[in-house]
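Q: Please design a sequence for this.
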């Protein structure tokens, strides 16, 4: 669990959701990137469970740096980079373990996800509705790999990164790209796909992903900097896919339709907020080829 703990209550809920797994063979490593509330270390010590390991960064590393540090601390064959306020349903680990047993060569598993808001209430905003539209149909389990998977993800990133179970050897070897703050999760998935890794989709809903309306990514989207990073990423990825001969994936990266649509839907909010620099960035991303 990398990141700033978003509040002791929601952070405790995330930890307790791991403690409450029906499948009990796990290690939980918490990397606190500088949450200011006192007493957190004492709360973890009071759990009395040696499977839970807590550490606090001496200086703030930011999302990308903390993700890389957390991966470097992983010791088991498979790893979940769970958010500090997400929730594993009791069947989560059993679901992904069963998927991995059925497909032992898989590089990562994406189970079914329910989205909740900051209050824990089921939520369904535009981004999550779009994910459902673009996500491949799954009846039970489905295995995807190669250009088919890359093209699908470049049309729209329908993955829920904190819910994914990864093969540790693969993601540690490949790692998060430095310099990315918004699309580091998609970049990692595509790098794994280019490395030959396959994805198992399991339709069993066993994870709750928390989406905050006031999150850092939401602010970056309205301010426009999110799409500056996305534009550069997609155009560079289009060149990478073309070099592989994955022409369909290259075309999906050049068009990046879902990303453009997202920028267009944010334009009215940016105008109302008088974020004029953001308006220009959003309009360029949405409408300029």
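A: Design:
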């Amino acid at each position: 669990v990398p990141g700033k703990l978003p509040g002791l209550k929601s952070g405790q809920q995330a930890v307790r959701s791991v403690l409450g797994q029906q499948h009990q063979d796990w290690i939980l490593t918490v990397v606190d990137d500088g949450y200011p509330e006192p007493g957190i270390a004492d709360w973890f010590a009071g759990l009395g469970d040696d499977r839970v390991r807590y550490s606090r960064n001496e200086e703030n590393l930011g999302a990308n740096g903390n993700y890389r540090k957390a991966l470097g601390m992983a010791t088991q064959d498979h790893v979940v980079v769970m958010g500090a306020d997400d929730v594993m349903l009791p069947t989560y680990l059993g679901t992904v373990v069963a998927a991995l047993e059925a497909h032992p060569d898989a590089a990562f598993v994406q189970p079914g996800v329910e989205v909740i808001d900051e209050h824990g209430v089921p939520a369904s905003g535009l981004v999550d509705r779009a994910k459902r539209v673009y996500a491949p149909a799954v009846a039970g389990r489905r295995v995807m790999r190669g250009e088919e998977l890359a093209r699908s993800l470049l049309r729209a990133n329908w993955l829920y990164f904190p819910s994914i179970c990864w093969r540790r050897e693969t993601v540690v070897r490949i790692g998060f790209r430095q310099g990315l703050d918004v699309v580091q999760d998609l970049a990692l998935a595509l790098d794994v796909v280019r490395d030959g890794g396959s994805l198992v989709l399991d339709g069993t809903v066993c994870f709750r992903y928390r989406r905050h309306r006031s999150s850092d990514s939401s602010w970056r989207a309205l301010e426009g900097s999110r799409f500056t990073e996305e534009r550069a990423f997609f155009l560079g990825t289009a060149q990478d896919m073309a070099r592989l001969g994955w022409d369909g994936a290259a075309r999906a990266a050049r068009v990046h339709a879902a990303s453009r649509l997202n920028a267009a839907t944010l334009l009215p909010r940016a105008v109302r907020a008088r974020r004029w620099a953001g308006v220009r960035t959003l309009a360029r991303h949405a409408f300029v080829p």
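Q: Thanks. Anything notable?
A: Residues 140 and 203 are 6 Å apart (CA to CA). The longest helix spans residues 225-244.
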